[in-house]
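Input:
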Amino acid sequence: MTQRTQKYLFLHHSQAGSTPPSDQKPSPEQMQAMLAKWNAWKDKFKDNIVDWGDKLKPGGKVVAGSAVSDGPFVEAKEIIGGFMIVSAASFEEAVVIAQEMPTGPGSRIEIREMAGAKM
Amino acid sequence: MTVEAESATDLVEHYFRHEYGRLVAQLANKIGLHHIELVEDAVQSALAAALDAWVAQGLPRDPGAWLYRVASNQLIGDLRRDSNRARILESAHHEEGEHDMVADAAFAGEVRDDLLRMLFVCCDDAIPRESRIVLALKILCGFSTAEIAHALFTTEANVHKRLQRGRGTLREASSDLVPPSLDAMRARLSSVHEVLYLLFNEGYLSTHAESAIRRELCDEAIRLGTLLAEHSVGAVPETYALLALMHFHAARLAARTDGTGGLLLLEEQDRGRWDQAQMRLGAAWLARSAEGDRFSRYHAEAGIAAEHCFAPSFRETRWKEIAKLYALLDRVAPSPLHALNRAVAVAEWQGPDEAIALLEGMTPPTWLERSYLWDAVLADLYRRAGHSSEFQRHRERALSAAPSDAIGDLLARRLAG
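Output:
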């Protein structure tokens, strides 16, 4: 069995303000198909998933010392919509795991290796 | 079995789509049809939330109750300004949200009634005819605009327009539309039959759409028809005859095409591929449809379909019975198409000359005279009667009028010179 010592943070980027109009949203039938695909992915990589993470709500705050502004950075074209922590033997393996994620069109996964300061 | 062990593969086929119909019917019946769009949005959001939550945490113990709770919570938020409506929903929410909804027999009956009431709402006379079928597909069957456009071989813009018109009528007339009384439902029953019949035929007769979506349309028509037959208002011989007709046709659905999607003639079909279970269901409904003294067009059509289904071969088909049933059909629902079909049966029963005499005695309307059907039947009859010039003339006209490649191929094979 492959030794999995490295942890990777998956950041799910999506287009800012890209909520599709109601008739472009996935149909119930498509959602059920997506659920099945996600479950298959989750099952395939269950040993790699350290923390399923969460989706992130839009909006937020940016704190810089005493200065607090509304975030995320307004000029950003993409926003981070979710995160997950995955373990893998190498960056290459982490890339494969991300590539097989059944994400929709227009979304991208940023992979960052965690430094392991707490490990 | 632990909750974690379950996966989405445990959900039955079309679970999300059918839950969409169930939730919209229940919530719209509670808060009123003038909020139909709000209800549809809330249900759509609940399904999207389910997708996220069920992947992350596995299926809840009672997915149906979970969806109802999330959708009604969203509606309560949306309706907060209208405090009276929200209170109705909140109290209903407490009654139903707390226990195992799906296992509750009384609840199952209530869901059936809600769905059925919605079917009658979609078939209201006030709603434009062309909007009824798309409303039923959207609201009751949970298809998206794109899926409906694909199934009905039209554009999304067209489906959208028909939906908007239908929803507009629902909003305007909702005071007398919800909930329809039993008398109002009875008065609307024939319109419901018509919509189910159209829905089925869109699936059965379409030669454009791919077979999977056609099959789904037929299955939905049968599902809603079965629901109708279980309700006191819908439990009448016409409903049973309609169901018999749909099951008999569904039995032959898969055998109508070859491996590449080309159409097969009745005499070319492999009768071994006809679905025996569907045929038995058709026979059972046909027997029930004979209960009353009413003879509807659905009775005639179910009888014809039964003759075809139970004939051991094309040659051994009881063409005399079929010719008689077409004559009956033409009497209860006059159409030159029925006369044309009767002529086809007469040709098998008595010979081509008798059939030609029948058709020469009638004046077809322009739409039929211009369609490929009229010429295709005449070409075939003249050839069998040995009139080659008449045969060639009608053959050429039929081929040039073929509306699709599949039908063109079928004609070329059937009328090969």
